[in-house]
Specification:
Layout lengths: L1 E4 L7 E4 L6 H21 L17 E5 L4 H12 L3 E6 L4 H9 L3 E5 L5 H15 L4 E4 L17 H29 L2 E6 L12 H21 L4 E8 L5 H8 L7 H9 L11 H12 L10 E4 L19
Parallel strand pairs: 3-4, 3-6, 4-5, 6-7, 7-8, 8-9
Antiparallel strand pairs: 1-2
Helix pairs in contact: 2-9, 4-5, 5-6
Length: 323
C-alpha cells in the first residue's frame, strides 16, 4: 500500500507500507521529521505546532510601572521575549536604568512616581513619542505599607493614605493617561496588579487589603466605559510571590531570621501540591491578557493562586479526639 505524506512547504513523500514498523517505513518517517525540523529552523515555520510560541506581543509597545524589580521586571522580561518594546517606569533611579540595560535594546527607562500624575502622563507621552503609540499599559507599581500594628483600632490613617495614594490613585492615573492615548486609537490593553488580599480578607495589613480590593472595582468600572471603543481592561491577583518586596515585608515579622528561611516559609504557603507561585507565572498571565489571545477578555480579575481563595477547609477533629 502506498501513502503520501505531504509537507506544507514541499513535495509529498511517498512511503511504501509493506509491513508495519518496517525499516524502510521508519527510515522515511525519520527523513520526513528531519525535513520538518530543517524547515522550522530555516524558514521559521514548523510542521508540528507548539502550544506557546514566541512573538505573541510582536512589535507591541508596553509601559510597565514598577517595572524595575519583582513582578514588574519579570513582566518586562517576558514581554520583550514575546516581541514587545517595553518602557520601564519606576521610582528607583538606580535599579530602573540597570534593569533596562540588563533587558537589552528593547527596554528603556523613565523615572516615574505614580503618585505624581504629571509623571505618569509624561511616561505615557515618552512611550508615544518614542514608538508612535501605546498598545499595553501595565499598572503594576504598588507598596505593601508597614507591617503593623494589625488592629484597625490602632490604624495609622496617614499610613493608610500613603498606601492608597500609590496602589489606588497611582493605578487610576495609569488608567486615565493610557485611556487618553488608546481611546483615539480604538485599541489597547490595560492591565493592573491586584492581589489575593483583595479577594479574601485577613491576608495582609488593612491599608494594603483595602487598596487591593479597590483595583478590581476600578478595572470593572473602566472596562464598562472603554469596551465601547475597543480598549480592554483587566487585572491579575497573584498569590504570595517571593519578591524582594514581599520578603522584606514578611521578614519584618521575624527579626533576626535569615532571608533564606523567610523565603522558604513564603514558598511553602500555597495549597496546590507540587507547584509554587513564581514571578514568571504572573508575567505569563499578563502576557496573555496583553495579547490578542485575550481579545474578548475585559473586566476580568485573573486570580493566580493555585486555588487558595476558592475554598476553606472545615477542620473537624479526628474521631479519637472526640472521646
Amino acid at each position: 500500500m502506498r501513502e503520501a505524506i505531504r509537507s506544507d512547504h514541499g513535495p509529498s513523500i511517498t512511503v511504501v507500507h509493506s509491513l508495519v514498523g518496517s525499516e524502510e517505513t521508519e527510515t522515511m518517517l525519520g527523513l520526513f521529521k528531519r525535513k520538518c525540523l530543517w524547515e522550522a529552523l530555516t524558514m521559521g515555520r514548523a510542521c508540528f505546532s507548539s502550544a506557546v510560541s514566541t512573538g505573541r506581543l510582536q512589535d507591541k509597545v508596553a509601559l510597565i510601572t514598577g517595572g524595575a524589580s519583582g513582578l514588574g521586571k519579570a513582566a518586562a522580561r517576558e514581554f520583550i521575549k514575546q516581541g514587545s518594546h517595553v518602557i520601564i517606569a519606576d521610582i528607583d533611579p538606580e535599579t530602573g536604568p540597570a534593569t533596562a540595560s540588563e533587558l537589552g535594546p528593547n527596554a528603556h527607562f523613565i523615572h516615574c512616581d505614580v503618585t505624581v500624575e504629571n509623571q505618569v502622563s509624561e511616561a505615557v507621552g515618552f512611550a508615544v513619542t518614542r514608538h508612535g503609540r501605546l498598545d499595553i499599559m501595565y499598572n503594576n507599581a504598588g507598596i505593601t505599607g508597614r507591617p503593623g500594628p494589625p488592629g484597625i483600632a490602632e490604624l495609622d490613617l496617614d499610613e493608610f493614605d500613603r498606601v492608597m495614594r500609590v496602589n489606588v490613585r497611582g493605578t487610576i492615573a495609569g488608567l486615565k493617561h493610557a485611556a487618553r492615548v488608546m481611546v483615539p486609537a480604538r485599541a489597547g490593553s490595560i492591565i493592573c496588579t491586584a492581589s489575593i488580599s483583595g479577594v479574601l480578607g485577613g491576608l495582609g495589613p488593612h491599608p494594603y487589603t483595602v487598596s487591593k480590593s479597590a483595583v478590581p472595582g476600578l478595572v470593572r468600572s473602566a472596562a464598562a466605559e472603554l469596551g465601547r471603543v475597543g480598549v480592554r481592561v483587566n487585572c491579575v491577583s497573584p498569590f504570595v510571590v517571593a519578591t524582594p518586596l514581599v520578603l522584606g515585608q514578611i521578614g519584618a515579622y521575624y527579626p533576626g531570621v535569615g532571608r533564606a528561611r523567610v523565603e522558604e516559609v513564603v514558598r511553602g504557603l500555597g495549597e496546590l501540591a507540587g507547584a509554587e507561585c513564581e514571578e514568571i507565572d504572573v508575567a505569563r498571565a499578563a502576557v496573555y491578557l496583553a495579547s490578542d489571545e485575550a481579545k474578548y477578555v475585559t473586566g476580568h480579575n485573573l486570580v493566580i493562586d493555585g486555588g487558595f481563595t476558592c475554598f476553606k477547609r472545615l477542620e473537624f477533629p479526628a474521631p479519637d479526639q472526640m472521646e
